[in-house]
C-alpha cells in the first residue's frame, strides 16, 4: 500500500514535469513564430527600396576581408576561390588559409592563380600555429584581391585566427571555403554595420541554404532544385525552420547566440579584443559570438548582432546518415562546451537578454531538450507497461505532438513562400508537404540519436576528434 | 489517475489541428500556383510596358508634338494604372531606364510620367501613414525630378525613421545640387555611414562649385554633419578649409579627430605636424596610428628624434611605422639602432624591413 | 552591303531594348545577351563584327568577356564597354585587356549610334 503510494507520486511528479516542459516548448515556438513574422515584415519593408549599387562604387565603402580556411580541399579549391573572387564589392580581399593540408591544394592554387611568395609582416595579435610555406599573392593583377597563407595545421579556429592576423580590413567575413556566396552577399551583410548610429553592430549572420542537387556552374548558382534523397529534403525543411523562424525571432530580440560558421561577418577590432576564435572547442562559431556579446555587456557598450535572412550562402549538407550523425554529434558537443565555458552568464541579470533569455533558452531547449525527450519516451513506455492506459489516450497524445510539429513546419514553409520562394518548380509543393509529414520519422530520430551520442562522447569519450565531412564538391552535385 | 477529461481535451485539440493542417495544405497549393501565375503575368506585362515605353520615346523623335501613336500608348499606360501590381511594374520599368540614358530622353520620360498620372500616385504616397510607403513616394519623386514637392519633403528631413529621412536628404541633393546641401543646416538627427555613402554617391556627380561655404558645416553642432562634410572636403580638395581642419584636431568627438587626421594626411598639410606632436601623449591610440600614417607621407629628417621615441612603443602598428619611417628619413640613425632586442615583435619588424626593402 | 552583326551584352532589359531599337534602325543585326555567359556563347557561335558590353554583369563580368575574346579566341573584333560612374578603375582595366572604346552611363543612344558606325568602318 505504502509502496504503491510512493510510486504513484513519483509518476505524478514526472508527469507534471513532462507536461510543463511540453507546454514550454510549444509556447516558446509560438512566441518565436510571432516575433519572426514581425521581424520578417519589417526587414522586407526596410529593404524593399534599397539600392545596393551605390555601395559598389563608393570610395568610402568599408573594407572587408573574406577569410576561408581550407583543409585538404584540393578537389574544388581552385573553383571555390574563383567564386569568392567574383563577389560584387569594391573594397575587399580574399584570404585563403591553407591549414596544413596534406594534399596538393597549395600547388594547385599557385598554378591556377600565378602566385608568388611575398614577405608579409604579420601583426600577431591572436596567437596561432606558425606559417609553413608563407604568404602568397598573385603576379596577375586580375587576382590582386587574393592572399593565400600556408600554415601548419591547427584546426579551423586556428586557421581563422591566422586570417584575422593577416587582415587589415574593418570587417571579417568568415566562411567555409566550399560555400557558394551570391555576388551581392557582402553588400547585404555589411549594411547593418553601417546603419546604426546608436549602437555598435558587432556581427551579422547569414542564412545557410542547402545546395544539394542545385545546378551550379563556374561557382555560380544557376538553378535551385529540390533533392530526391529524403535525408537532404528533411534537412532543407529543418534549415528553413531554424533560419527563417528561429534566428529571425532571436534577431528581433537581439538575442542571437549563434552565427553559422559557414557565413558570418564580424567587426575585426572586437573579434581581436576578445582574443579571436577559441581553438579548444568544437563549437568555435557559437563561442566567439557569446564571447563578443559578453565583452560588450561587460563594457556596458550598446551593441547588436544582426541577421540577414536573404538566401546568400549555399552549402552542401551531408547526404548520408553517418556523416550527418557525426556532424550533429559535433554540434551537440559544441553547444555543451560553449554553455559550460560561459556558465557565468546563466540567469545573470547583468547580462540582460543574453543572460536571462538567450542562454537559458539555449540550455533548456537545445542542450537538454533531446535528453528530456528520450527520458519522456522511456517514461511513456514505463507507463504503458505499468499503468493501464487507454490506447485512445496514447494515440491522441502522439497525434497532438505530431500535428503541432507539422504546424511549425508549415509556418516555416509559408514564410519561405511569402518571402524568397526559392523552390519555384511545379510539383515541389507536394514534395515539401510530404517532407513535412515524414520528417519527424526520418530526420528527428537521427537528430535525437546524434545528440545522445554527442552527450555520451562529451562525458565519456573525451578524445573524440572532429567529424570529418566527406565532400562531394559543389560542382558535381 | 483519471484520464477521461484529459483525453477529451487532447482529442478535440487533435481534430482542430488536423483541420488547420488540411486547410494549410490546400492553401499552400493555391498560394504556390498563384505565385507562379503572377510571376508569369508580371514578366509578360513588363515586356509589354518596356516595348510601349521605347516605342513612345522613339515616336516623338520622329515628328510633331504628340503623335496619334503616342496618344494611344498613353492610353494603354493609363489603363494599367488601375491595378496596383501593374502600377508597380510601370514605375519599375521607368526607373530602370531612368539613370541609364542621358539628355532629352530623360526629360521625355519624366513628362510621360506626369502625363499618364503616375505622379499623382507618388504624391499621394507622401501622405501615407506607413513609413515605407512615404519613403517609396520620395524615392519615386526624386528619380523623376519632381521639384514642386520640395516644401512637403523638407518637413521630412528629421523624420524618426531613417529610411524616410534618407530619401528626403537624397531628394534635396539629387534635385538641387550644392544648394540642396542646405538641409544640413536644419539636420538634428544622425547621418549613419550608410546615409553618408548614398549621399556622397550623389555629391560626386556635382559640378565643382567654389563659392560653396563648407566651413559652417565643419563647425556644426551635429557631429554627423561634420563627418559628412569632411568627406566632401576630401572629395573636392577644398584646401581652403585648412585652418578649420586644424581646429577639428581638438574636437571632442574622437571619430571626427581621426577622420580629420585622415584628411590632413590626404592633403599632406604640414602645419598639423607640430600641432599633434605637442599633444601626442594626450591622444588615443587610434589617433596615434592615424598620425603615424600621416608621418609616413610627410616626415623629414628632423622628425627622427620623435620617431626614435616610438620605436619601442607597445602598439605594434606604431612601432612598425616608426621604424619604417625612420629608415626612410634617416637611414644612418636607423642602422645604429640595436638590431636585436628582447621584444620578439621588434625583431620581426626589423627583420622584415631589412629583408623586403633591402639595406 | 550585308547587315553587320553586333552582340549587345547588357543586363538592364529596358536599356538593351532601347539600344536594340536604335541600332536596328541604323540597319544592324542585333544579338542580345542578358549576361556575360550568354555573351560569350553568342560571340563564339555568331562571330560578330562588333561587341558592346556592360562592365558589371551577372555570371561573367564584361572584363572577363573582353579577356575571353582577346586571349582565348584571339579575335580582334572591336569592343565597346559601358561603364557606370565610379567605375573608372574598371574602364582602365578594360582598356588594358583590349577594349577599343568606352561610353559612360547615362548613355545617349544617338552618340552610341555614331560611335558604332565609326567602329564598324
UniProtKB/TrEMBL annotation, chain A:
Its EC number is 2.4.-.-. Signal peptide: none annotated. The chain crosses the membrane at residues 12-35, 368-387, 393-416, 428-452. The keyword Cell wall biogenesis/degradation does not apply. InterPro entries: Glyco_trans_2-like, Nucleotide-diphossugar_trans. GO terms for molecular function: glycosyltransferase activity. Keywords: Glycosyltransferase, Membrane, Transferase, Transmembrane, Transmembrane helix. Residues 65-202 form the Glycosyltransferase 2-like domain. It comes from the Bacteria. Belongs to the glycosyltransferase 2 family. PANTHER family: POLY-BETA-1,6-N-ACETYL-D-GLUCOSAMINE SYNTHASE. This is Glycosyltransferase. The lineage of its organism: Bacteria, Pseudomonadati, Bacteroidota, Flavobacteriia, Flavobacteriales.
